Amino acid sequence: MFETLDRSLTGRPWLAWLLLTLFCAALWLPGVTTVPATDRDEARFAQASRQMLESGNAIDIRFQATPRYKKPIGIYWLQAAGARLAGGEDAANPVWVYRFPSLLGALAAVLATFALGRRLFGPGAGFVAAALLASALLVGVEARLAKTDAALLGCTTVAMAALARIYDPERAHARTALAFWLALGLGTLIKGPLIVIVVGIAILALLVLERSVAWLGALRWRWGVPLYVAMVLPWFIAILFASKGEYLKESVGVDLVPKLLGAQEAHGAPPLTYFLSLPLTFWPAGAFVLFGLGWAWRNRHDRDVRFLLAWLVPGWILFELVPTKLPHYPLPFYPALALLAGAAFAAERNAPVTRSRWRDAVLAFATLGGFVVGAALLSIGMLADRQIQLAGVAAGIAALLTSWLVARWIRRGARERAMLAALLGSLIVLPLAWGLVLPDLQAPWVAPRLARALNDVPAEHIFVAGYHEPSLVIALGTRVNLASPTEAAQALVTDAANVAVIDGRFDQEFRDALAAQNVTAVASGTVDGFNYSTGKRVVMTIWRRS
């Protein structure tokens, strides 16, 4: 099977690009238009992009009245452009038009992975690597969310694919250097210096390994650096003046430095967290990734493998040592993992089966990710809505079966069957989970349900107390005000046309504030749900002045 794939793609990269694009569409498009805005980052990014369109201010970023100075402008420009191209928001699910940059960024990463793998290890290995990257659970999550990470993944992968050509002087061209600097500039505008750190560490590692700087001349520094500066500097100067220096203070002093020095926002975790989570975040291909790392170590003296290890190892170690950890942080290294897995599969697919306790332990560890995914899907209906969800049960069983088949066939030496099981399993489980399971849930989607309840209660201003999740602003628009119970009560006192929405935990405080003003209110509806950001159930009551 692999030989047929390799022969079919030789000399026809367009066929691989077409097949991979269709594969990505089948994996990622389900749920994009139906899953509501998620808390908290996606809703904040999308709302800031919405306000950019509403205000016409393409420099100063805001979430309602609060400045958004933790990330640069690039993702907001891209999301606003995507919303315009889509013809504006969808009343049923306003957030989805802001998800285009993430989809395109993830697709760029997959196609660039194939281009790099094709050159390093052949078209078949490159195709397998790209398909593994596309099927990874974490990549599928980020491809669907209106955030920075999938777009950054695309920029980083393009930059590293270009750097790989620079690393091979016979293949270095001016257009290769141009692609490198454009990707580096766009990545910086999307998420600041992170792409420079990832690429810079890889370059330093290669310089140490090669003990030579001559190959770096092909980057065309004389015009490459000015191009990068021309892309990045104008907005940074503009925002420094517009914010009176607050942007630098917020992005570096409040966001970046605390993450490097300690666990920010309770997101701390010990070293090796990212590695130990690979069976889950790279599901269903975790086994291939782990065995790919072993193959890479055995072949570390190969020049192409050495390039991928320089991309992966020092940067990954740095990220493991940083105290603040979130699952998506090491995403820029996932293409390197996928490429090593694809190369290992191509090289060892017909190798004799060598069983050992160590190999079985690695396989068992890799299989854990599938059991976590399966258990989560099987139980999500009961946990969220307190009822069995048939789509979740079907997806959970499919996830467990996929992991079992992958492990079984790898142990028997049928690696091609195991690879096919992993890719087909992802094509079943992930679209089912995103296209049916998540949109069908009720309790987690408090904001859109509250928006529907308020359709019958027209109000120019809505004051919400107790439930301050950003998805509320996406669902209700800029007319929503995140207030305290006392402020919500005062809003009803000031104007009878206002509406208050109060979390049940603050009902008494709200009533006391109204009573102090000799004003009464009547409840006109209730929405109960589950706040997955805090892990608590909520009951929201809609109040109008009587």
Could you explain how this protein is built, in words?
- By secondary structure, the protein is of the alpha/beta class.
- It has 3 domains: 2-348, no CATH class; 357-440, no CATH class; 446-545, 3-Layer(aba) Sandwich (D-Maltodextrin-Binding Protein, domain 2), CATH 3.40.190.10.
- The protein is 64% helix and 7% strand.
- It has 24 helices and 7 strands.
- A 5-stranded mixed β-sheet has the order 4-3-5-7-6, sandwiched between helices. A two-stranded antiparallel sheet has the order 1-2.
- A hairpin with a 4-residue loop joins strand 6 and strand 7.
- Helix 6 (123-135) crosses helix 17 and helix 9 (174-191) packs parallel to helix 11.
- The protein is globular.
- The termini are far apart.
What are the defining features of this structure?
3 domains; 546 residues; 5-stranded mixed sheet; 7% strand; alpha/beta; D-Maltodextrin-Binding Protein, domain 2
